[in-house]
Every structure is written in structure tokens, then in C-alpha cells.
Design a protein that fits this description.
Layout (H helix, E strand, L loop, with lengths): L2 H24 L4 H20 L12 H24 L2 H10 L12 H25 L1 H11 L14 H11 L1 H5 L4 H19 L16 H7 L4 H4 L9 H6 L24 H10 L9 H26 L1 H15 L4 H5 L8 H7 L5 H14 L9 E7 L7 E6 H21 L7 E4 L7 E2 L5 E3 L1 H7 L3 H4 L6 H4 L4 H12 L5 E5 L3 H24 L10 H6 L8 H11 L7 H4 L5 E4 L5 H9 L7 E4 L10 E2 L9 E2 L5 E6 H5 L5 E2 L9 E7 L7 E13 L2 E9 L3 E2 L6 E2 H15 L3 E9 L4 E8 L7 H15 L1 H9 L6 E4 L4 H11 L12 E3 L15
Parallel strand pairs: 1-5, 3-6, 6-7, 7-8, 18-21, 19-20
Antiparallel strand pairs: 1-2, 4-5, 9-10, 11-12, 11-13, 13-14, 14-15, 16-17, 18-19
Helix pairs in contact: 1-2, 1-9, 2-9, 3-7, 5-6, 5-9, 6-13, 14-19, 19-20, 23-24, 24-26, 24-28, 30-31, 31-32
């Protein structure tokens, strides 16, 4: 099909049908003839054109397709509507019309304008019905009939189940009869709907151009028929695209063609009578869910709907949101000690703020924070902190990061939004119980009587109330100081629940530790489930034992199931403990990606691993929408962001950029201003821009800035080390659970430690050579230093199982916070206080 025909055929066909309808009406032709003749002629023309001007040769129908679709077209699209409407629709419309115009319908407007209003009104109602059909199982079983063909051509536009067609009738006809809409308007709508539908489902090589944003086109509708349900969740409009554009479901990727069409069930019956019966033969019988569970789903959908509206507006003009955040923070804190010293009252734009306030870190702000703690001074913020997040500091002294009540409320909203988007990605993850592991939100009191705790506790406990009600483990357990006792207590509470459908924790290594501990103590744990009680009860404090009251009852049937797992040839995995597990939310990027790769082996293939988002003790940087793996949307309306390109910061030539100055694929250091008094705070984190949502960049955490070493000028990055290790192990065995690379300046060489499980086929020396070769490919300076002999050969060592956990425990004993623990996989040997040599494998 030539360009002119591909672009002009649709508007010419729709315009021609409308003109013929108008002419037939003007010469007094019966309304049925005036509306049906243009529809039939247009359909026949498209059928003929499909034989020569087809979009896809593999979409040409077979005889069985033609028989089935002809049966649907004749019965469901002709006979069935006649039974519903022929004796009622036009007669009732005539009665109402003859009785005179009343109600809100604009009866006196020109016919084309009334038809347009009806198209928009019907499409709005049909849009939400269509979305419901893709969301609710009972409706999907009806709508599945329409999506069952694996081709698109004109005739299968009519493949609808009769019950779904009746639902359409209740929206596109009945309300307008009640309004007394004239028969000519109803007929005009039917013509526009039918002709557009013919083109929309046709196998013609059509190009709509800008019309894709106005009408339900063939180009957009083909994506709605994709076999992958996640891809097909778009373009719900029937005749127009207006509501898809408005509600954010319009989708047409440039330069790409849709892949397979159809439904995931490739064995779905294809005959006419079989498909009429299919919704009833394929009925699942889920147990009736409690009202609270239904309310949970409805609540999360409501939160997500509101968030999408807000985010759609904000992401189109991110600097407007950012300017408003900065102005609010400066206004609210102009009378603080820091605000007075830096003239916040006179700062009204970012350029003035950046010129007046230098880049800060915790040590430059520590005097202000300590003044607030010791004397109650309004040092950083006018509003006093509601509490503090405690984390390890670079000087050895702990950092107490203030959090005001207003900021805490905003963080709560961010968490509720994040959970709602997790629900959008995998609603069934919220059908069962939720195992969420975090550090306690209250761990003690400071001198000013304010509590301090963990960031992960703030995140978890700000989930929606109906979500928290489904947590398996009470918060008192999270305060157990001994990590081994804590994890075994978590296991005791969780393994009795087969219905765990969601796992959430910041660090994936926590879940690997759960799996190891279960395998090591399965006998004791299963015995406890069988008999009731817990073998470590004596190690628990009174408040924890009180919280566990009624939770440690005997369950012999569940114990029998767990005991069978120990008789299998392979060791039990997390997927075996919780077969209903649908979603795991954790960090998957940077150094956490090593443990995340190992975690996948513990999960069923259909369990989704979902990025928790970029967050730290100081602030929450992103929420994950699920659009781009590992990436998140910056928290634009809560924190003010600045960025410096990584290379410019590392070379001492920083150029500060706001959110609108970033480029895809570039890496940046983050500087943040928070409502709790961290002003132009350098957090030493590196992020990468992975794409854009409208005009707002999506960010992925890459590494801490300190994950960079240079012995002879090679400037090796942690991300390069992790990438090299992953590539090598992907060819030779399972991923590593733990990786540590040390820059040994005394030897001018690197030492690599990796903990695989199980041990790969290649020996440590070969592994080291392969990683060394990969690093030469990834880092030209590393290659130059290796080729010149200035950098010695890499030395690799396999580590015994459990070394990564031993390293973590050692770091925690030295003052790092367990809840915020992150492995930095690249360090200088001179700074490493943990001795890996006793943990090397010799076999």
C-alpha cells in the first residue's frame, strides 16, 4: 500500500460512510437502510482491500477463523442486538422523541454534533467497562473471547460473548433511550462505531499519524491485542483515544510492531459454540475473600488512581514541582538558625539558593543537629524534629538524621504510593499474607527525649493500614538485637503460613540468610510447628513473647507438608516454603544486584522480583512505578534535587544541574535538600538516568561514590567489577552470593573474593583470569595499566559458604546499622578491617 493510501484510507472511508448516511437521510430513505448500507459497503471494501493491502501476511484468516467469526458477526452483532433492541430501541426513541425534548440532552443541536457528543459519552463509559474487563476475573472470562484470536482482520471485530454485548448495550444504548435521544443520533453513533471498528481490527497497512491521538486506530489497537497481558493493558478506548490519552493508558511505541496476538492460554477453544460456553467451563472457584481483603484492593486502586493523576501532571513539568518544593522549604525554615545565617528570607529562586548555600555533608551540619538535640534549638528547621534516623557515620560517630513531622507525613504518602504501584504490577501479591522485614522504627531516645530508629522501619510502617494488617511478623520481633534469633523467630512465624504472597525487605541478602537458616534448622522449626512453641523462646524478651501470644500454636498438617520438603533430593527453597509467593520487593541494583541474582534461584519462575527504589537514611529518592526495571521516579514534590555529572565531580569541576538538565545514559552524583533540614546535602550516591516519563528522568542507583579505587590511575568502579563477575559466572555456573574486590596498593594489584553456591566448575585462578579480561574490556584505563605492567594480575579466591553473612555481622558489630547495611563491593585493602583469608575455600 502506497503512502497516500495508507494515510488517507481511514479518513476517506469514515467520511464517505458519513456522507452516504447523510444523503440517504436527506432523500427520505428508511433509517435502517441509511445507517446499514454505508456500514455494509465499507465492510465489503475493507475485506477486498485486505486481500492485497494487508499489514501482516500471517494475519490472513483460515477457513476455521472465517466460520467462527462469521457466526459471531451474524448472531452476536446482528441477531442478538435485534432481539435486545429491534422491538424496543427505535420505537422507544420515537416515543420519547415525539413526546418532545426533555432532560439534559441537546436535542436542538445539529445532528453531527449530537453524534460526536454520544461517541465521547459512550466511549467514556465503555472505557471503564473495558478496563474492568481486563481487571476482574469474572468480566475477563467474557472478554477473553474477544482477545482469543491470534490474528486481526475485519470479521473478528464482532467476536464478543453475548453477555458482554449485553453489557455494551446497557452503556451505548439504554442511557440514551432514557434521555430521549433521536433515532437518527443513535443510528449515526452506530455508523461511526461500526466503521471505525472495521478499520480498527482490519489487517490493512494503515498509518494514522496525528489521528492516533484522537481515534481508536488500528495502529494503537493492535498493541491492545498483544498476547502479553502487561503489554495489552493499554488503549482501552473503542472509538476514540481521548480517554486513553487523558487517563494515561495510551500506548504506541515508535518504530515497533506488535509481536504475538491473543491470550496467554494457547489451548483456549476456538469454535463458535465452544467459545460461547468457555467462560463457564473455565470458571475458577477462588475462596471467598474477606471484606477487608476486598477493601485492601479497592483502597490501593484508589491510591494509585489519585497518584497517577498527580504524577501525570507533575512529570510533564518537573521544574514547576521542584521550584515549589524549594520555595516551601526555604519559606518554612527562614527563621531557623541555618536559615537566618544564610538569608533564606531573601532567597526566592534556585540560582540564589545555590549561590548562597554551599554543598553540605553530615559533618558540616552536625553542629546544628547536636544543638537541637542538646538544647532544643531551632537550628536547621523551625519545626522541631519528630525523631531521628540513626545510621553509621564516616568518622565513626553515628549520624542522627532529623525527620520533622511534616516530612514524616510526606514519606508516608510516598510509601503508600509505592505500595499502590506494587499492587498495580502484581495485585495477587496482596491476596495472601505479607512477610515484610525491617529494622525497628524506635530503638531508643536521645537527650532531647526524641526517638531514634531506622529508615526501613519508617518505610514499612507507613504502608496503608489494611496492608499492615496482613503483615505476618509483629514489629516487636524486628527489635530483637541478635540477628540470628530474630531471623529464626521470623521463620517460625512465617513458615506456618502457606499463603505468604509478598516478601519485602531492603537487602536481598536478608532473604538468602532466611533460606540458609531454614535449611540449617528445619528439623527444629518443623517440630515446633507440629507441637507448638519455639525452641528459642528463652532468648526472647517479655515484650516479644507477649507479641507472639497466640501465634505459636501447633499445626500438624502444615508440619507434614514442611517435613516432606526435607525428604526431597534438593534442598528446600523459599519457593517451596511459600508456593503462593507472587512478588519480592527488595533492592536489585548496584552491589545488592549480586545477592538479588542469587535470590532468583530461590524463587519460582513466575515470582516477580521488584526494585524497592533508591532510598537511604537521609531521604527517599525514588518510587518504582514498574515501567523500567530497576528505575524509579524521583520524589519531585517532597525533595529538591541537584546533580553533578560523575566525571565532572571526580575531576573537581562540578557543574550543578537541576532535574531538567539530565541526559539519558549519563551518571550523576546526587545533592538533595529535604524538608527536615538537609540543605544541598551531598549524599555520595551515583545514579544513572535510564529514561524519561514525559519530561522527568527515571533514575537507577549505581553505587556509592566511594565504590571507586585507583592504584595507578585506572579508576575502577564498583559497577564494573560487579558486571565483570556476573558475565563470567553467567557462563560457568550460578551467580555469586557475595563479592568483594580489594585494591592492594602494596602489590599494585587487585584481590577478588567471591562466594558462589554451589562452587562453579572453573577454579579460582581461571575465574580471576576471566574477570581480569572482562575488566580490560569494560575499563580502557584498567587495560592500559595491565598491558603496561603497572597493574599486576588479579588474584581471585573462592569463599566458603556464609562468608558474606559473617562480613555483614562483623560490620554490624563495628557500628553499621543492619537495616541500612549495603555491601560496597570495591574497597582499598588498607581500609578493610575484615580478614577474608581464613574464609577461603581450599577444595
Amino acid at each position: 500500500m502506497n503512502t497516500a493510501l495508507s494515510h488517507g484510507l481511514y479518513p476517506a472511508g469514515l467520511t464517505g460512510a458519513a456522507l452516504l448516511f447523510s444523503i440517504l437521510l436527506s432523500v427520505g430513505a428508511p433509517l435502517t437502510l441509511a445507517s446499514h448500507l454505508p456500514i455494509v459497503l465499507t465492510g465489503v471494501a475493507i475485506l477486498l482491500l485486505e486481500q492485497r493491502c494487508f499489514a501482516r501476511a500471517d494475519w490472513k484468516p483460515h477457513a476455521a477463523d472465517l466460520r467462527t467469526d462469521a457466526a459471531f458477526m451474524a448472531t452476536v452483532q446482528v441477531v442478538w442486538p435485534s432481539l435486545l433492541a429491534a422491538a424496543v430501541v427505535f420505537a422507544l426513541a420515537d416515543i420519547r422523541h415525539d413526546a418532545g425534548p426533555d432532560g439534559p440532552w441537546p436535542h436542538d443541536w445539529p445532528l453531527p454534533l449530537q453524534v460526536l457528543i454520544m461517541v465521547l459519552a459512550v466511549d467514556l463509559m465503555r472505557y471503564w467497562l473495558h478496563r474492568a474487563c481486563h481487571h476482574f476475573p469474572a468480566l475477563w472470562r467474557l472478554h477473553e473471547v474477544h482477545h482469543s484470536p491470534d490474528i486481526l482482520y475485519l470479521l473478528n471485530v464482532g467476536r464478543f460473548h453475548p453477555l458482554e454485548k449485553a453489557l455494551h448495550f446497557s452503556l451505548d444504548t439504554a442511557p440514551f433511550l432514557l434521555l430521549g435521544v433521536a433515532p437518527e443520533v443513535l443510528a449515526g453513533y452506530a455508523l461511526v462505531y461500526s466503521v471505525n471498528g472495521f478499520f480498527q481490527h482490519s489487517n490493512l497497512a494503515l498509518r494514522y499519524g496525528w489521528l492516533n491521538y484522537l481515534v481508536g486506530s488500528a495502529e494503537t489497537h493492535r498493541w491492545h491485542h498483544a498476547r502479553d497481558p502487561k503489554v495489552a493493558a493499554c488503549n482501552f478506548g473503542s472509538t476514540t483515544a481521548v480517554w486513553d490519552v487523558l487517563f494515561g493508558t495510551w500506548y504506541l511505541p515508535p518504530g515497533r510492531e506488535v509481536g504475538e496476538l491473543g491470550i496467554p492460554d494457547r489451548h483456549y477453544p476456538q469454535g463458535f459454540l465452544a467459545q460461547i460456553a468457555a467462560p463457564f467451563r473455565h470458571v475458577r472457584h477462588p475462596s471467598r475473600q474477606p471484606v477487608r481483603r476486598q477493601l485492601l484492593h479497592l483502597g490501593l486502586r484508589w491510591i494509585r488512581w489519585r497518584a497517577r493523576r498527580r504524577l501525570a501532571q507533575m512529570t510533564r513539568d518537573p521544574m514547576r514541582a521542584q521550584d515549589a518544593v524549594l520555595a516551601r522549604i526555604l519559606r518554612d525554615n527562614r527563621d531557623s538558625a541555618f536559615g537566618r545565617q544564610h538569608g533564606f528570607a531573601a532567597l526566592d529562586v534556585y540560582t540564589a539558593y545555590a549561590r548562597t548555600v554551599s554543598v553540605q555533608d553530615y559533618e558540616t551540619l552536625r553542629p546544628y543537629i547536636e544543638a537541637e538535640i542538646a538544647h532544643g534549638e531551632a537550628a536547621l528547621t523551625v519545626a522541631p524534629p519528630a525523631g531521628y534516623v540513626c545510621t553509621s557515620g564516616t568518622t565513626g560517630q553515628p549520624k542522627h538524621v532529623p525527620v520533622t513531622a511534616a516530612h514524616l507525613a510526606e514519606l508516608g504518602q510516598l510509601q503508600r504510593t509505592a505500595v499502590a504501584f506494587q499492587h498495580g504490577v502484581c495485585p495477587h501479591a496482596f491476596d495472601g499474607t505479607l512477610l515484610v522485614i525491617y529494622s525497628p522504627i524506635h530503638e531508643g531516645l536521645l537527650a532531647n527525649g526524641k526517638p531514634f530508629g531506622s529508615a526501613s522501619g519508617i518505610v514499612a510502617l507507613n504502608s496503608p493500614g489494611l496492608v499492615r494488617d496482613r503483615f505476618v511478623v509483629p514489629p516487636e520481633v524486628m527489635a530483637i538485637p541478635d540477628s540470628r534469633v530474630k531471623y529464626l523467630t521470623i521463620l517460625r512465624l512465617a513458615i506456618v503460613r502457606r499463603d505468604v504472597s509478598y516478601l519485602g525487605t531492603a537487602n536481598p541478602s536478608t532473604l538468602l540468610q532466611l533460606a540458609r537458616l531454614y535449611r540449617a534448622h528445619s528439623g527444629q522449626l518443623v517440630s515446633d510447628v507440629r507441637q507448638g512453641g519455639f525452641f528459642l523462646s528463652d532468648a526472647l524478651t517479655g515484650d516479644v513473647r507477649a507479641a507472639l501470644a497466640g501465634r505459636l500454636e501447633a499445626d500438624p498438617a502444615r508440619a507434614d507438608v514442611l517435613a516432606k520438603l526435607d525428604t526431597c533430593e534438593t534442598q528446600p527453597k523459599l519457593a517451596d516454603l511459600w508456593p503462593d509467593l507472587k512478588l519480592v520487593v527488595t533492592w536489585t541494583c548496584a552491589s545488592a544486584g549480586v545477592a538479588a541474582d542469587a535470590l532468583r534461584a530461590e524463587l519460582a519462575p513466575d515470582t516477580r522480583l521488584f526494585e524497592l527504589g533508591y532510598m537511604s537514611s537521609e531521604f527517599r529518592g525514588t518510587i518504582t512505578l514498574g515501567r523500567n526495571r530497576g528505575s524509579g521516579l524521583p520524589t519531585l514534590d517532597t525533595h529538591f534535587f541537584e546533580f553533578v555529572e560523575r566525571r565532572r565531580w571526580d575531576t573537581g569541576q562540578p557543574e550543578f544541574l537541576t532535574i531538567d538538565g539530565l541526559q539519558k545514559g549519563h551518571e550523576y552524583y546526587v545533592i538533595v535538600t529535604t524538608p527536615s533540614g538537609l540543605y544541598r546535602y551531598f549524599i555520595n550516591d551515583v545514579v544513572r538516568v535510564t529514561g524519561f516519563l514525559h519530561r522527568t528522568p527515571l533514575l537507577r542507583f549505581v553505587q556509592k561514590g566511594k565504590g571507586v579505587t585507583s592504584i595507578t590511575g585506572e579508576k575502577l568502579y564498583e559497577a564494573q567489577v560487579l558486571d565483570a563477575v556476573r558475565q563470567v559466572l553467567a557462563q560457568h555456573g550460578p551467580p555469586a552470593r557475595f563479592v568483594m574486590m580489594l585494591a592492594d596498593e602494596t602489590r599494585s594489584a587487585y584481590r577478588l573474593y567471591a562466594e558462589p553456591d554451589p562452587l562453579p566448575a572453573l577454579d579460582a585462578q581461571t575465574f580471576g583470569q576471566a574477570v581480569d579480561a572482562q575488566l580490560c574490556e569494560l575499563n580502557i584505563e584498567y587495560r592500559a595499566k595491565r598491558e603496561s605492567g603497572r597493574l599486576g594480575a588479579l588474584e581471585a579466591n573462592w569463599l566458603a559458604s556464609g562468608t558474606g553473612e559473617a562480613y555483614k555481622d562483623d560490620c554490624v558489630r563495628r557500628g553499621q546499622r543492619e537495616g541500612q547495611f549495603k555491601v560496597v563491593a570495591l574497597n582499598y585493602a588498607r581500609d578493610m578491617r575484615f580478614d577474608f583469608r581464613p574464609h577461603r575455600r581450599t577444595d
